[in-house]
Each structure stands twice: as C-alpha cells, then as structure tokens.
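Lab notebook: predicted structure, single chain.

Context: the supervisor wants predicted structures on file for every construct in the current expression panel, including those that have not yet been purified. This is the next one on the list. No modifications to the sequence; it matches the entry in the shared construct table.
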Amino acid sequence: MPSRDSKYYFGRLNIVSAYEEEKKQFLEHGLNSGVLISERNYTWGFFEIESVVEQDDYLSGFLVKYRPLDPEQFVNTETREIEEQEIRNRITAKLRFFLHIRTGIIAYQVVSQINEKSFRENFAKLLEASYNNLFIDAEVQAINQEESFFEAVKSFDSIAKVSIYLHPSNPSSRDIWKRVDERFKNLGLESYTEVYKLKADRSNLDIEGDEEINSKLHMASDGYGKAKVRGKKDGEYETVTTGDNPIEAEVENSVENTERPQEILKQILPTFRSLFNRIRG
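Prediction complete. Output recorded below exactly as produced.
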C-alpha cells in the first residue's frame, strides 16, 4: 500500500518583542541559537535551519523531539541473554517547517507523534527561550479554513458566549478588520481579550449583524489570535474555535523524501499565495 502524502498545516507566528533587530536577523538568531527545552523525558530543539528563496524569503528547518537517553533491548546470541543498552539522542519525531519571514505565515508538518497544538506550543517556547524568555512573547496561531468556522457558527440555533483573543497585525491589515487593527496599534496594545456572555433572561446572543464582533472573528481566523463561540444546536451545547480546521496542503512523498527544501516549498507555494491574497483582500 503506498504511503500517504505528507500533510502541512498553516499558522501564523505572532511575536511581540523589545528587540530592534531586523525581522530576518531576529528570526535567524532565534532558530539558530541551539537552545533546547526539556519536558518529561523528551527534549525539543530546532535543527537544520536554512534560508530558502522562492520569490520571497523563507526559513526552513525541523522542530525535533528526541530522547536524550533511550533504553533499548537486544539479544546476545552468544550468551542467549536479553540485554539492554542506552541509545543517545534518539529522534522520536521531526517536523519540517517553512516560515515566510515578511508575514510570519508558517507551514508545518503534522505526524502522529506530535500533534498540531504541540508543534505550535513548543515552537513558540523554543523561540522565547532563545532570547532567555526576556522581552519576547511568541505564539503560533492556526490560520483557519474561514468558511468552515463561520458556517459552524451560523449553524447554531442560538449563541451563548463569544470569546476573542487578538494580537495587532504585522505587517498588513485585511480590509474586513483593518479598523480594529489600526485601533489596537494606536492604543499600543500587545494583545486584546474580550468575552460576550448571554444574560440569563435572554435566549440568544445575536452577533450575525454585529460588524465589530465579526471583524474580530475574521481577524482571529486569519491567525492573529483565536476565537471561541459556544452555542446550542438541536438542544445540545457545542463549541467551535478558529483552530478547529486549520488550512492544509499536501506534499507528494516522492518530493518530501528528496529532503530538498526548495522542491518541497514549491508544492505548498500555492497555499502560501492564497493566504497572502486572503490577507490583502
């Protein structure tokens, strides 16, 4: 049976930092710092970072999860005994990524050993650790399949709660949320959080015609934060979030296995370009 093509998810790297380096230099320093973080019996790090130019500047590399010491059993055919030895730095999983420097849009592999959320969290932790966790706040937020999120919201019979968390954009604003974004920047906000909760004596939080709320939901869906909507459908409460259906692209295994970043990037460039156009729209 032929193996499945390699799947990439898309998100956005959001950084708030007091450092004044150029963006490319800042990211290259962070990804090449050699800093490692440990969690339980595993260690995480960035490896094989390189610059890739395909009409624009990208950084490519691997987020690697490995075990510093991994006991392994083997048979000794001479003594007929089962013995054990320690294998050093055994890779549990490695996820290739491509980071578009100008927009912060990032494409990253997903494998069974590391889920999508774990990649986003550990990528951000490593980048912060590369600057000693000082004067930097990093997050990777999923870029959602826009239609699926808003269709799910519209399918609710009633809405009880809306939670929104946002970052100001960098570098550009989309028309549908440009006014909100400019307000954040004028106020000098690092992040913004708001919650709309239905009164006990009301049956529905009517957000369909509210331009302000919908512009913020679109901003979160574009990867500048996250949003969560809780509503009732067929008598049962459900919750949908902007991270439920991230944008995906596939790379043919024959290309992925070449280990040539330039060729791999070419297969997911159409998705990058569609996201560039979406943000400009």
